[in-house]
Amino acid sequence: MKTMTKAVFAMALMSTLSPVAASAIEPAWVGVRAGTNGVGGEVGVRILPTLVLRGVGQGYDYGYDQTIDGIAYDGTLKLGSYGLQADFRPPIIPFYLTAGVFANDNQFDLVATPATNVVIGNTSYTPAQVGTLNTKATFDDMAYFLGAGLKLDIGPLETALEAGVYYQGDPKVVYTSTGLLATNPAFQTDLALESAKIVDELDAARYWPMVTLMGRYKF
């Protein structure tokens, strides 16, 4: 499904940018970016004196540890997104407004291998019964961004700091076990209860704070 979404998004991106090229809209800049949605690059074209359209790609993998409902997980936050942003840049002042739409591959991977008895759902289980707990939390295929930025120009170079909210929808969690009771119906019921707690823990991530520092070379 995500592959199809990416293909549709890529075609939409090409169809959006083709009229831009055909109309000889002037290039604005090329740049690099780093922030809470990863590292990457961007290309900007000026549509109007106060409007810039950007193609953006970014990603990164972060390792982290997290404890949810008393279970310690080794986690990886896998960031990945690419899309379009439109900037409204009033003349003279250094502030601008921006909005965007992205193909979204952000996900959390959590792995836990308990060494002692652990409560899952409403029941205590042994390490052998549990085995390894694997969690994959994904979000909507499309995400939306709204924010504002502050830019500083030095000749052909521009530095910008941008902040806003990247809305990626509710987390969708797949929670599985490799232990002796992996297929046991009662254990599956407890896994479902634990999965709901993980959803609650990750729910705030649907409103992802997107803060980005950019360096650009202007044409």
Description of the molecule:
The chain has an 8-stranded antiparallel β-barrel. Strands 7-8 form a two-stranded antiparallel sheet. The protein is built from 3 helices and 13 strands. About 5% of the residues have low confidence. The protein is of the alpha+beta class and 219 residues long. The protein is elongated. It has one domain: Porin. A hairpin with a 2-residue loop joins strand 3 and strand 4. The longest helix is centred in the first third of the chain and has 21 residues.
Question: What CATH architecture do you see?
Answer: Beta Barrel
The percentage of residues in β strands lies in over 45%
Secondary structural class: alpha+beta
CATH class call: Mainly Beta
> Care to count the β-strands?
13
Main beta-sheet strand count, sense and barrel state: 8 strands, antiparallel, barrel
CATH topology: Porin
**Biggest sheet strand line-up:** 1-2-3-4-5-10-11-13
What is this structure's SSE topology?
Layout: H1 2-22, E1 27-35, E2 38-48, E3 51-68, E4 71-88, E5 95-104, E6 107-112, E7 118-120, E8 123-125, H2 127-130, E9 133-138, E10 142-154, E11 157-167, E12 172-177, H3 185-202, E13 207-218
Antiparallel strand pairs: 1-2, 1-13, 2-3, 3-4, 4-5, 4-6, 5-10, 6-9, 7-8, 9-12, 10-11, 11-13
